[in-house]
Structure formats: C-alpha cells, structure tokens
C-alpha cells in the first residue's frame, strides 16, 4: 500500500516501552539520530515490533514543523 | 525555548513552495534523506526561511507512525 | 508496507480540489458517508489520484476524536 | 457546537481500554468497519463513554491521509 | 455535540486569509493573546466564519506540546 | 530555537498525571482558562516539568480547529 505521507525514514528499533494503551518506540535512523514515535500498544503487537528489527518512521508533512536557531 | 517534541533533525532547506496560506518546505537531512514539511506561509516569512539555509524538522512523537515491510 | 495507523477505510474518490501546495480529496466510503482529506498537491500527483478511482482514508488513532450528542 | 472538522461518522462503542492517562475507544460504524480512537481517560469519563453507546468519530481533514493499492 | 477535545477557548475572529484549499483564521482570545488556526476553505464557508464574529479554538490534547524557557 | 508553530501561550502547570508512556499536563493560562496537553512521560522528565512551574502550551496552526455556537 502506497500512502500519501511524504516522509518515510528507515531505521532499527532500539527500545519499546509499552503501557496499557500506548507504546513508545525509539528508532535509530543512523548518523546518531533517533526518532521517537508513540503508537497504540495494539499496533505494536499487530506489526510484531521488536527491539533490533528494521522499521520505518512515517510522518504526514502537515505534522512536521520547522525550527531555526 | 525547550519544546516537549522529542524529534528535532538538522538539515538544509532544498525547496520552498509557497501558496497563499500554506508553504511546503523540503529539507535535506543528509544520507540522501529528505523531509517534507507543510507550515503556514506566515511562519515561513517570520522565520526567514530561504533555500540553502540550515533548519530543523521538529515532530511531536504522537505524530510519528511506524511501518514495517 | 504495513503501517501502524489503525484506521484504513476503502472508498472512491469523488472530488479533488488542488491548490498550489495542498489538495482536498473527498472520498465516498459508501452508506452515504464521505471522508474529506487534505494532503499535499505533490502527494496527489505522486499517488496518481483521480476522481472515480478507488483509494483508502488512513487515520492514526491519536488523531481521531470521539463526540456524543 | 458546530466544529470545523469535516469528518463525523456515527457508530457504536465496541470496546474501551483505559490506562492511567489515555484510553483506546473502538467504534463500529457498520458494514464491518471499525474506527480506533485514542483520547484521554479524562475525556472518556467526562463524555460518559460506555460500551454499547452511540458515539461519533470526528477527524480534522488535515489528519486524514490517502493510500492506494 | 460534545467533543472529546479537552481544549475549547472563546475568542473573536480578527482575520481570515483564504486560499483555494485552506484558510488561516486568527482568533483574539483576550489579554493580547492570538491563536492561529488553519482549516479548509470549505469549513470556513460552511461555518459562516467572518471577521468580528465570535468563535472557539478547539484543540485535541495530544496535539498540544509543552515548552519551557 | 524558534519554531514554526504559530501558537505559544504562557501559563502555570496545575497538575501532572503520569502514566508509563504518556503524561497529561494541565496548564492554567489565566482568566480561568486551562489547557490540557498530552506529551510523553520522557518529555515531562527531560523538561523538568513540575506543578507550580511556568510553561508554555505550543500548538501548530494546522492542529487547531474552529467551532461556532
């Protein structure tokens, strides 16, 4: 399936913290950069996410802000 | 100012497409990876964004999805 | 690709209104229900969206609110 | 109150999973389609949500993505 | 209709900038504070928004970030 | 750091409810108005948020809806 979300960055799952409803996923995308995602605990299970596995961070463009120093 | 958004990735502005209300900003974050952001045209002006300048992509964790192959 | 977004509803594209940066897509999902989506004009082109074509509305659970009468 | 969110779909609450901060609400909107929402546990209480009750899924258009096969 | 979004702040519409797809609404909520919202041009019309009219800014809690100096 | 998010409202933290993954922050912005935010528990710790401290609610414009009576 091809999604309209413009941003899809490959990485490796470093850490999963699972609560009763939500789960925090930390993805290492290389170059010392980590991306933190919060999804439902159900999604974590249904995608079979595990530390060490490859995964993608996917972001809709309208959710991405820009900052300058 | 220190923001709760967990994700802040440095890059260079490659392209700005400005409409009457919104603007699309394409950021090169290295390693051949680009991040697309949509913000208001007003924000683009008030931050002084220009092609070639350094900027950060900032994403709240709850806006980041995870995908697997 | 399998995305963590819990919601994926099939429909038919009824109308596309394209601006310089964003595009509004109206999807008919049957039973007289329409879903309106706003994505980038670039995404509309790269997915090859056209009126009359089948497509899915995809929503991250944390973006869905609940209301009662 | 009339909200700008373009999407409002009627359904029946199938399941509520409540954590200390967030709650996951699964809504059946008919035709075998379910919508998953994550809202605060406080909102769940203040709206008096209960399994079996009618409720609406409400989505801002800019939060809805489009996908194609 | 009673929505799960925890935040609803009353104000007066100061300025509407309308593009072909999106519209920017600036709301004065008193005390010299303004809130900027971006909604679809269609929503602006269907709600009958006009400069000088009262309106509310509505935000889902999970869309609100926190910052400190 | 200067962020594109158009909305930044100063307040005082009234209450923090912390779960294993997410935390709910209630901010008093004066005039009897409260703003509820949900961020990660990790962000709450890394920003050093505490009840009674000053903080800002930050909202991207495209996340703010408009409602009328």
From TrEMBL, chains A, B, C, D, E, F:
Presence of the UniProt keyword Cell membrane in the record: no
UniProt keyword list: Molybdenum
Cellular component per GO, a single term: plasma membrane
Protein's cellular compartments: Cell membrane
One Pfam match: TOBE
Mode of membrane association: Peripheral membrane protein
Origin superkingdom: Archaea
Main location: membrane
Domain Mop residues, every copy: 2-68
Any one biological process term the GO annotation gives: molybdate ion transport
InterPro entries assigned to the protein according to its UniProt record, in alphabetical order: Mo/tungstate-bd_C_term_dom, Mop_domain, Transp-assoc_OB_typ1
UniProt xrefs under SUPFAM superfamilies: MOP-like (SSF50331)
Protein name per Swiss-Prot or TrEMBL: Molybdopterin-binding protein
Source organism (scientific name): Methanospirillum purgamenti
């Amino acid at each position: 399936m091809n999604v309209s979300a413009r941003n899809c960055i490959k990485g490796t799952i470093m850490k999963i913290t699972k609560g009763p409803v939500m789960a925090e996923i930390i993805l290492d995308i290389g170059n010392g950069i980590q991306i933190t995602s919060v999804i439902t605990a159900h999604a974590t299970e249904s995608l079979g996410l595990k530390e060490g596995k490859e995964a993608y961070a996917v972001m809709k463009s309208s959710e991405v802000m820009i900052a300058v120093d």
